């Protein structure tokens, strides 16, 4: 930022990157003093590469992870970074490959596996299957705003909150606020802090605010990710079933023996 005078803010570019064709619509986030850039589309494919900004060279460099998880980039980016736990959440994958005939253009093939990246270890973990209702909202939203509680998205002119940590989907029952957000210029830079939505127009260099209290969102009756049972639950259930079968067969034998005795 060069200066901030009342509602006027001016910025200057600090990176030397020439070709940006590999990360169109990528998800950018910060972790402490580090700046990251994840995914995006370019050269007829989208990718799951994580890049970190180098302040010494003023350029971006790849941060290797144990696997490539490719997130949705269109119509919105479905990734969300949790600054507290330092984890990157991707509710499902969409793989776009415009060089293949059977690939849906710009939307890609849907893979409903959910993944979480631990930025400390750079390892991805499979988090289960995304709920079909949550997928419908994220796959058809036309605006997304990152908040400290999750992704605030615009779906069918209504505001929803995708909360990955509580694994809940929330809805704001306030059409007036939703319509104000819906009519915002898509070319503006928008971010949410506290209970205030900040809006910056790069063309006019003007900023504005709108109050959106996340506590006013109401939980809906379905999760973001379908709950999965760890392996020991399945083992315990299997042991119980086997025990019941053994008891049942023993009882049958006792009945047969009792009949013979009579």
Name the descriptors.
36% strand; alpha+beta; 262 residues; five-stranded antiparallel beta sheet; 22 strands; 18% helix
Task: Provide a descriptive summary of the structure in words.
The chain has helices spanning 132-139, 175-182, 231-261; strands at residues 3-5, 8-10, 27-31, 34-38, 41-42, 45-46, 50-54, 59-62, 80-82, 87-90, 93-95, 109-111, 113-118, 123-129, 143-147, 150-155, 158-163, 168-171, 189-193, 196-201, 206-211, 218-219. A five-stranded antiparallel beta sheet has the order 15-16-17-18-22. It is an alpha+beta fold. It contains three helices and 22 strands. 18% of the residues lie in helices and 36% in strands.
Mean pLDDT rating: 91
Oligomer type: single chain
Distance between the termini: 96 Å
Please tally the β strands and state the result: 22
**Helix content estimate:** 10-25%
State the shape: elongated
Largest sheet: 5 strands, antiparallel
Radius of gyration: 25 Å
Structural class: alpha+beta
User: What is the number of helical segments per DSSP (H or I, 4+ residues)?
Assistant: 3
| Beta-strand percent range | 35-45%
As laid out across the biggest beta sheet, the strand order is 15-16-17-18-22
N-to-C order of helices and strands: EEEEEEEEEEEEEEHEEEEHEEEEH
Low-confidence runs (pLDDT<50, min 5 residues)? none
How would you summarize the topology of this molecule?
Layout: E1 3-5, E2 8-10, E3 27-31, E4 34-38, E5 41-42, E6 45-46, E7 50-54, E8 59-62, E9 80-82, E10 87-90, E11 93-95, E12 109-111, E13 113-118, E14 123-129, H1 132-139, E15 143-147, E16 150-155, E17 158-163, E18 168-171, H2 175-182, E19 189-193, E20 196-201, E21 206-211, E22 218-219, H3 231-261
Antiparallel strand pairs: 1-2, 3-4, 4-7, 5-6, 7-8, 9-10, 10-13, 11-12, 13-14, 15-16, 16-17, 17-18, 18-22, 19-20, 20-21
């Amino acid at each position: 930022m060069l200066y901030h005078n009342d509602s006027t803010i001016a910025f200057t570019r600090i990176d030397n990157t020439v070709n940006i064709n590999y990360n169109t619509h990528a998800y950018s986030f910060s972790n402490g003093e580090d700046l990251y850039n994840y995914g995006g589309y370019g050269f007829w494919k989208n990718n799951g590469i994580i890049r970190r900004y180098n302040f010494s060279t003023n350029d971006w460099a790849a941060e290797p992870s144990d696997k490539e998880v490719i997130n949705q980039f269109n119509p919105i980016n479905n990734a969300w970074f949790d600054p507290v736990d330092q984890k990157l959440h991707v509710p499902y994958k969409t793989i776009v490959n415009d060089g293949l005939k059977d690939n849906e253009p710009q939307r890609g093939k849907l893979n409903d596996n959910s993944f979480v990246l631990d930025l400390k270890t750079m390892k991805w973990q499979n988090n289960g299957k995304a709920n079909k209702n949550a997928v419908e909202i994220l796959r058809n939203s036309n605006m997304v705003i990152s908040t400290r509680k999750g992704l605030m998205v615009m779906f069918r002119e209504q505001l929803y909150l995708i909360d990955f940590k509580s694994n809940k989907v929330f809805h704001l029952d306030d059409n007036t606020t939703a319509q104000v957000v819906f009519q915002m210029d898509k070319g503006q830079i928008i971010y949410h802090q506290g209970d205030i939505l900040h809006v910056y127009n790069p063309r006019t260099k003007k900023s504005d605010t709108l109050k959106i209290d996340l506590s006013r969102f109401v939980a809906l009756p379905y999760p973001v990710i379908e709950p999965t049972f760890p392996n020991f639950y399945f083992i315990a259930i299997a042991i119980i079933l086997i025990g019941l079968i053994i008891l049942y067969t023993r009882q049958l034998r006792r009945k047969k023996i009792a009949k013979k005795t009579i």
